[in-house]
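Schema walk-through. Below, the input block comes first and the output block second. Nothing else is stored per chain. Lengths vary across the set, and this one has 370 residues.
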Amino acid sequence: MRAVAFALLVFLPGTASADVQVEYVGHASFVIESPSGIRVVIDPFNSNRWLGYSYPDVEADVVLVSHPHYDHDASYYWGESVPVFREPGEYRVADVTIVGVEGRHADPYGKDFEQKNTIWVVTTGGVRIAHLGDNGPVTERQAEGVGRVDMLMLPADGDDHILKPDEIAAARAALGDPAVVPMHYRLVGFHDLPESLGPIAPWLEGQRGVVRLGSHRAIFSDNRDPERRVIVFEPSPDLRRWSDALVDAWKNLDDARDAMREGSAEGLGRAGALVERAAASSSSIVFAYQRGRALAMAGSDADAVLALESGLASAGRDDWENRMRARALLASLYEKQGRTDDARTQYEIVIRHSYRTELLDQAKDFLEKE
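--- output ---
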């Protein structure tokens, strides 16, 4: 086995012991494993939306979520037995100290949940690692809350989707010139998705000290890296490309959304057929919700109710965002049908589990009228 020693970093790809192990799953998701074996998963993503690949089976003792976007918040994959931290604060799990610093999601995204974003700082084995989530430019207050770190995981891609190069440079300088691990870029080999994210190669061309690990795992020691290296992980080999059927389902759904925007009877009819085709290709709740939405827009409330009820019954815990959208729409249809008790039940679930401000406002308005 080849070991490459740096001032800060000792890379031993594939090694299962010693110091702090960092594992890149994909997109913005990492696993930090402490010397005692505590596994901290950060920003797991939904398997059926946007990215073109599915989240693998990953063991976790605790899950950190920076913000409630589907590509960062698939904490439901671990059920109720694994604690999930979302809010700023200080937490301790065995030999891991976790600090959540209040941040702000990069413009113009995240307005549906007031642009909340928690910057996570994980300290274990003498190594301090910060994960920015989708934070915008790091402010002085945020930098003070985070402090100096050894490693900084931040969004970087060729299209500057979240942060621009000068904002990345400023974040590095504000946090003590740590080693940088880029994330949140388009991975090659997965249907060339998502189209709105750029690959990492163009950004790397302007960086110095780039180290390509050739592995999705590495071991890190507790010394500082004076050369401010940029460390590029391979994604997990357990990522799986979407099936062609799922890709086609999303193409049909995108076409259906365009047809729904027309608002005409012809457009709504075309949208209904497209969403029906998409829903037949996948059991993901996003397609059941959009099918119910298309039926409701076309005035077929009874059929919409059946589609939403069926979709929710088979959805499991997958995709909290569209589950809550489906429940809010179902509640509104129940209300139209005079089924106020059923509407109340759905809205109470929305209140407990949704983060989207418009859904919460809709639920609160109904419950305040009761």
